[in-house]
Amino acid sequence: MTIRVQFWSYFKDLTGCADLTEELPEGSTVHDLLKRLHAHHPKLAAMQNSTLIAVGVDYQGRSHVLRDGDEVSLFPPVQGG
């Protein structure tokens, strides 16, 4: 299945791109996607404990099962000022 991934804020700098697509087996979870992304983008892995994840417009946990065509957005922790 094809998953579109969007990176926001300084995650674009960590990955060197604003978005990409990943091919995953049916039944893959957000956790499976993150493992693959972290393998390709080690700098992103350093932020794994504080990364916010949305599938479509809803925040999801790592056990969420992805479906073909899902759009996943990764956000760094929110900072106020």
Report on the architecture of this protein:
The protein has a 5-stranded mixed sheet with strand order 2-1-5-3-4. The model has no long low-confidence stretch (mean pLDDT 94). It contains 3 helices and 5 strands; from the N terminus they run E-H-E-H-H-E-E-E. By secondary structure, it is an alpha+beta fold.
**What is the radius of gyration?**
12 Å
Oligomer: single chain
Order of helices and strands: EHEHHEEE
Mean pLDDT: 94
Report strand %: 25-35%
What overall geometry do the principal axes of the alpha carbons give?
globular
Distance between the termini: 40 Å
Structural class: alpha+beta
CATH superfamily: Beta-grasp domain
**CATH class descriptor:** Alpha Beta
| Helix percent band | 10-25%
Q: How many distinct beta strands?
A: 5
CATH architecture: Roll
What would the keywords be for this entry?
five-stranded mixed beta sheet, globular, 81 residues, alpha+beta
Fold blueprint:
Layout: E1 2-7, H1 11-15, E2 19-23, H2 30-40, H3 42-45, E3 52-55, E4 58-59, E5 71-75
Parallel strand pairs: 1-5
Antiparallel strand pairs: 1-2, 3-4, 3-5
Summarize the structure.
With 81 residues, the chain is α+β, with helices and mostly antiparallel strands. The chain contains three helices and five strands, in the order βαβααβββ.
